Amino acid sequence: MKGIIGLKVGMTQIFDDEGRAVPVTVVLAEPNRVVRKRTPEKNGYAAAQLGVGFIRPHKVRRPQSRDFEKLGIEPVRWLREFRLPGALELEEGSLHRVEDAFSAGDLVDVIGTSKGKGFQGAIRRWGFHRGPMTHGSKYHRGPGSLNARMSGGGGRVFKGRKLPGHMGHRRVTVLKLRVERVDADRNLLMIRGAIPGPKGSLVMVRESVRARPSANNASNARKEA
Question: φ and ψ at 74, to 5 degrees?
Answer without folding.
Answer: -75, 145
